[in-house]
Specification:
Distance between the termini: 22 Å
Oligomer: single chain
Strand content: under 5%
Number of domains: 1
Structural class: mainly alpha
Number of helices: 6
Order of helices and strands: HHHHHH
């Protein structure tokens, strides 16, 4: 039985959580009024497709033109252009809503760039990139669920005054990132990519 796809899924889920918790992409989690609504799901789908497209563009087309470390210099601006153009098209013509309104993401293009960087360094086939991209999106969704559960439990429990609200979320995300860092390193070693 080949467990590599499952390990890639778990690794990508943990790795994107680390990226998110290093202040790259969530603002609405610390605010109680932000909802995980239709526009948030649309942005998750856009991140999913933009990572796959960016990986294909870099690994199959640009890698043959630009060699070495110079390809990583182009990764961030190209992935931002891919994500932003897809977001503009989807939110302008399909969803017909402002992309920035009531969103939990502050920097989805940066999340796309970080996920594309991980895919370029770990994945070799389209199937692996598909699984990892799904893991990235699942990781974003899971960290949202965990932090929302912490916030709802904190509202029911007696929490000290100085920890209420955003401080509790930041402390919780710090502890969660330590756990995910350890798990991510273990799964990365199991993949035998490092």
């Amino acid at each position: 039985m080949n467990v590599m796809p499952l390990l890639l899924l778990i690794y990508s889920c943990f790795a994107i959580n680390l990226v998110l918790q290093c202040a790259l992409g969530l603002k609405g989690i610390t605010e109680s009024k932000a909802q995980f609504n239709r526009s948030a799901f649309a942005k998750l789908l856009l991140i999913f497709t933009a990572v796959i497209f960016t990986w294909f563009l870099f690994s199959r087309i640009l890698f043959s033109l630009v060699h070495g470390i110079y390809i990583y210099v182009l990764l961030f601006p190209v992935s931002m252009i891919v994500y932003d153009s897809a977001e503009y098209f989807v939110f302008r013509y399909i969803v017909k809503k402002d992309a920035g309104s009531e969103s939990i993401f502050t920097f989805p293009g940066g999340i796309t760039a970080a996920a594309s960087f991980i895919c370029l360094n770990v994945a070799n086939t389209f199937f692996e990139v598909f699984i990892m991209s799904f893991g990235f999106v699942s990781g974003i969704f899971l960290v949202n669920l965990v932090i929302r559960e912490i916030r709802s439990r904190a509202a029911l429990e007696s929490v000290p005054f100085f920890l209420r609200g955003k401080p509790l979320v930041l402390v919780s995300m710090g502890i969660l990132s330590l756990i995910l860092l350890t798990a991510s390193v273990l799964v990365f070693r199991m993949i035998d990519a490092g």
